[in-house]
Each structure stands twice: as C-alpha cells, then as structure tokens.
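re: ur msg from earlier - yeah i can do the phosphoenolpyruvate complex, just paste it... oh wait u already did. ok heres what im feeding in:
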Amino acid sequence: MPQPEMQVLQGMGVSGGIAIGRAVVIETRGPDIFRIHLPPAELEAEVARLHAGAQHAREELQRTRAKAGKDLGSDLAAIFDAHVLMLSDARFLGRVEERIRAQQVNAEWAVHKTAEELDELFAHVDDAYLRERSEDLTDVSRHLLRSLQGISHHELSELPEDVIIVADDLTPSDVIRLGREQVIGFAIESGGRTSHTAIIAVSLNLPVVSGLVGVTSFVRDQASIIVDGETGTVVMYPDAETVERYRHLQVELRTRDQSLLATRDLGSISRDGVEVLLMANIDLPEEAEEARSFGAAGVGLYRSEFLYLEKSPALPTEEEHLEIYRRLIEAAAPHPAIIRTYDLGGRKLAREVMATEEENPVLGLRGIRLTLARRDVFRVQIRALYRAAVYGDLWVMLPLVSRLDEVRDFRAFAAQVVAELEAEGLLFRRDIRLGVMIEVPAAAMIADLLAKEVDFFSIGTNDLIQYSLAVDRNNEHVAELYQPLHPAILRMLRFVIDSAQAAGIEIGLCGEMAADPRYASLLVGMGLRRLSVSPRRIPEIKTLIRALSTTDLAALAQRCMGYATAGEVRRHVDSFFECEVLSSERM
Ligand code: PEP
Ligand code: MG
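and the outut:
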C-alpha cells in the first residue's frame, strides 16, 4: 500500500522533546454504546452475535497471553487466563444473554449494563481480592465490546519499539504504566496544559502534544508519526526529508539541555543580587535524585498521591511511605522537602478510598476533604510523615484547603497520631512545619486568616486558575480560556502574597505557571522568592532570572496589575522581555 500523504496537526505542546516512532491508537474513553431496541425475531441472532464476539475476544486474549508468558513470565500471563475464563463464564455471559432476551436490546448495551451492575456489586464488598476482580471485569467487558464492534485492539506487549501512543484520553496512571514501557511519546485528544497527565509526562521526560481533537479517528495503527512537544506539532506519515529535519532538531535539543545543565552550580541570583529559590516538584520516586542533578534547592512539592497510584490497588504500607519520604528528605538536604498529603479524588481517583462514584469529582471529596473523611487510610501516611521527619527538614502541606476548620481538624488528628507514636515508643519528630496549598479561591480570599494558623503557603495555580475562572484544566475545548494572566488571578496572587508577608510566614508557588520562565520572572516581580517546578525546567528559569533585576521585575508586576484583560497583560509582558533580550544582546 502506498504511504499516505504527509499531514501536520497542531495541538498544544504540554511536555517538551521530540519523538519519532510508530503510532499505536488506543481509545480509553470507550466506544459509544447505544441502546437499540430489537424485534423478537432478531433476538436469537443477537445472542449468537454475542457468542461470536466472545469467541473472538477469547482468541485475541489467548494470543496476547502466549506473548505475555514469553516476555513477562507466568504470573502476569495468568491475568490473561483469568480474563479468558471470565469470557467463558456462564454467570457473566448468561446474564448478558438474559438481558438481550428480556429487555430486547442489542448485545453491546447488554454487555455494558451487565458489567455496570456487577461492578457496582463488587465495589461494595470488603474483600480486596473481589474488588480487584471488578477491574478485570471492566477490562474483559471493554474487550468484548471492541470485538462486537469490530474495533482492532492491541496489547502493548505485542508491539515493537519506539511506540507513540495516540489516545483519546489517558489518566495519570495510564501514563506512568505506558511511559515505563517502550513508549516514547504521546499524542492525545483531551487535556489542557496543566492536566496531571501532562505533568506526569514531564516527570518521565516524554514529549506530549494534547488537544488534538479527533486524532484517534484518523491516525492508523502503525503509521509513522512524529510528536514535537516543543511546538505542539504532530506530523503523520512524514516524508524522508521531514524525518531528517526532526532528527537534527533532536540533536539540537540534546545539546541545548546539556548546556542548560551547566547552570547547575550557579546561584539562582538575580542581576541585583536577590536569591530566588528554585525547588523541585516531584511526582515519581526516581525524580528525587534528578532534582539534585538539575540544581534544585530542595523539594517544593511531592505529590504523594502518586505513590498511592503506583501501588494501587494495594495501599502503600507505613514502611513504603517512610522509605520514599526519607529518600526525598535526603535528596533535598540541606533544603527542606515539602511533602503534600494525598491529593486523591478528582481525576486521581482511587477506587479503594472513594466509596462512591461522583458526578463532579473535581468539586467532590478530594484532597484534604478526603483525608479527613477517611482517617483509617490517612493515619498510615501521617504516622510515616512524623517518623520520616527525623531524617531532615520535612514540611507537611495540605491540598485543596478551603476552610480554616480543615487546618484545625488536621492538627487535632495529627496530635492523636503523635500520641500513638509516643505510646508505641517509636522515633519521630514533633515540630513539623505545617502549610497549606492556596489553590481554591476561598482559601485565597481568606489568606490573611489562614496565615495566622499555618507556617507556610504554597500557591497551586493549576487548580486556582481552574476554580477561579471556571475552566476545566483537562478540557481541550476551553484550553484557550485557561489564562494565568487574567486580572482575577493576578489580584488573588497579590492578596495572598501580601497576606503571607504581613504575617511573616513563608510563601512559594508550585503550579505550572512558574514553569514558564517569563511568568516565573513576573512572579518574582510580585515578591515571590520560592518557586517550585519540574526539575528539568529549573535551568532555563535560572538562566533568565540571573539576567534580570528584581527592581525592574517589581515595576513590571506593578504595571501588569493595571491592565483590564489577560491579553493586555500578556502583550505588556512579551514586549518587556523583547526589550530585555535586545538590551542584553547590546551589552
Ligand atoms: C496546583 O494545583 O497548582 C498543584 C500544584 O497541584 P496539582 O497540580 O497536583 O493539582
Ligand atoms: Mg492542585
């Protein structure tokens, strides 16, 4: 077959780098399932179609099993055996059959509804083993639906190297799992710049372009494809000349990264001698040491929920928490390691912790709300935090705080946990600094009150922008409305920074806003001296800060407060930096 013509798509580059590889298309949002009413005369044919679909899915799984057994060992292959068995199980298929006949519906609808019903049953049992079976069931029914609809399906273990995943949507844990296999890049339909999926890809150093509406419907499996996370471009079916050009760019990027690394031992000090601490945001354990190699001044945010997601469906043990916290504290020394308690819920949903499905999880039982609601689960984390504090400078931070009561409740709960540790005679440290994320507008507006009861603030612009502007950070359709320079955001930042300074507490910012060197500089102009970003963003920000004076930046920030729209602020910031670049070139 002749190679189709080269096509270029434009999305958002949310994680840098360039990947050249072969596409593998996956649809995680699941096929659309319609309920179709069938006349009685067609019901037996529909049941036969169900069995043919199940047979096809079994054969596909058996092929995957054979391959998995060879590559991954018999334990993992046994998972596929369990799936094949489920596809032969009369209790599952029998229920589906019954539904087709009783409700006179198509096989897809019957499979979907039966899986939903069983899932609901499993979700409420105490037995962890059975709850895991419910995940198997979800996988199996998805497989069966694809077979019924004739959709091709791959298992990653069957694939050659240099895989680029083209997907409709991916959860952060999908990216962790896929990113540690032979995947070298992602092209995704959904997602904004600050989605957790993008954040994890940066942690894994894999290029991602998101916001590519409809991409899964026109990329063919195994098509050659280039993902350019620097510019947000995806090239399908590139010609030889284009591939060559991108190979060159890859080399240039590597050289640029190497030269930026040379800033590692330089102070993060502005032209007029003011120190700005550039700390590391850490999602995965392996980034602890990486943070040091990029010259981070400690850990400004450890998203501890990823430890949970990596261990899921089991809960991490106290010793597992302790081990990773110690690793972080030691990598951060002599600076602090700020560990955020679980921010589960929202999209970082955890079946074992959440009792129910929520219609609007981002406004639901998330962050500190979930911590306080499920103390049995969080006791383990809090014990480990107090125990880990003996290894160095550990600060504990609470996510998604919206009320002062949450801080007070947490303190009371922590006091109980400390009393338990004391009674058990375990080694721990009592005087940990406690801080809050400022990422809900309500918290920003009571920053002066919160500042009296906590030791530090860290502004989480990713959520603060989402909640203030009512713009979903994962939704490609409103990505243009996600504006860090909106006057509402600048005013909130102004108030929060002033409140922290008036109370004399530490303040930093750990949202992705700081990852853009220009915005980072503006934030310095607003008075921040502690910014936390993904470790590999540090060199570029440091280089820019070293070239600027905080007096000029303060004047810039002051002028920005006077504009009425994000566009006006943006234009002013851009022209400031153009002048700065010109004047530094003249020097
Ligand atoms: C934020 O909201 O800005 C933040 C840093 O937390 P997360 O991205 O994990 O929600
Ligand atoms: Mg947040």
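cool cool. The first strand starts at residue 7 and ends at 10. ping me if u need the other ligands too
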